[in-house]
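UDP-glucose 6-dehydrogenase
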Amino acid sequence: MVKICCIGAGYVGGPTMAVIALKCPSIEVVVVDISVNRINSWNSDQLPIYEPGLDDVVKECRGRNLFFSTDVEKHVYEADIIFVSVNTPTKTRGLGAGKAADLTYWESAAWMIADVSKSDKIVVEKSTVPVKTAEAIEKILNHNSKGIHFSILSNPEFLAEGTAIQDLLKPDRVLIGGRETPEGQKAVQALKEVYAHWVPEDRIIISNLWSAELAKLVANAFLAQRISSVNAVSALCEATGADVTEVAYSVGKDSRIGPKFLNASVGFGGSCFQKDILNLVYICESNGLAEVANYWKQVIKINDYQKNRFVNRVVSSMFNTVSGKKIAVLGFAFKKDTGDTRETPAIDVCKGLLGDNATISIYDPRVTEDQIQRDLAMNKFDWDHPIHLQSLSPTSVKKVRVTWDAYEAANGAHGVCILTEWDEFKQLDYQRIYDNMQKPAFIFDGRNVIDPEKLREIGFIVYSIGRPLNPWLKNLSAAS
């Protein structure tokens, strides 16, 4: 029986291994992690991450051919194929700080694999890593191999949170990169056979190692670029009276462009986009490609500009100050159908409003108060490091209250900011919200989930990203 071990029980490792176990009942799959709490959660009825469909898959396979354990070395020793799905956070200090990927955890995993292995292994990069990482991992493994052969493969994940299980069950493509040697191609074939249990052969792409490593960074950079492009256009739409939803719909009808990732918003978030672009920028700079690096930097700059522009729009609309005013924030996760808050635009928006002494009341159906308070107290990039290494900066968290009800959050507020596109925000009784707010009552829709005209009829002063402005807002600057 083939045995797969995955090091890292996070957003990628857990769901990916659960689906492999579901589709490959003849393969034993073990997910290992040094975090006792995380493994205990995977073995409980309350999984550590929320993802539609994940509970059902885990419950069907757990105890049959899917296991979660803290005994890392035992299962690495027994495995034929080892997936490494550990964090690759952005470096916060030293060479490349603020851009380069920190490969400390990957390197530690490689040393451990070399130390405990007594038989040949296929080691699969599942984490998003800089191009040429496999070369460094090969050196560590082969210089400590004691005669054991290690084949390194790159198998980047292309999951979207909120749809991860469907993305795994019906992927656009599975990319496997390996060395162009007989041993390398044999390893590629072994991993291909795992995916072939449910993925059509024409969707399994084989490439060299460096192409696979780079493809993941480039895919995320292209997606983020589309969001920054439509967000840049949203600012122009507001200035000219055009409607970004109409512009994007028309542009998306071009079959060469397509409609996805053309929704204007307060900005992109999540664990990948910014981190991967910064990584790409660093790689370009390291290879002397300054112009290419500057091109990709602009994607991040527009994203920061969009968040700043939103905060400035809130403040300027409300008589140029939100000091002492209550602002309700609806949605804190970076997108709907996930409880993930990593790099969520809500953090920067809330910090911007707190910087002008606002009082904030937050409601999100999937994010806990503890997580929100941690996010607002944390330094940039620290979220991706273990908790004991996270430095908490002082912040005005006393001015932040978290509620479990949208109406409670908005009660007595001067303004409402919609920062996540949860479906329930489309169904709220906005008349009730308006009746219980201070007047004039403002709504700032950072996700274009509401009908601005219907809300204006109720009496709200409405700002929707990239849509024609309320007369109230037309002469107010939102420049950063």
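thats it. The chain is about 40% helix and 15% strand. The first strand starts at residue 3 and ends at 7. bye
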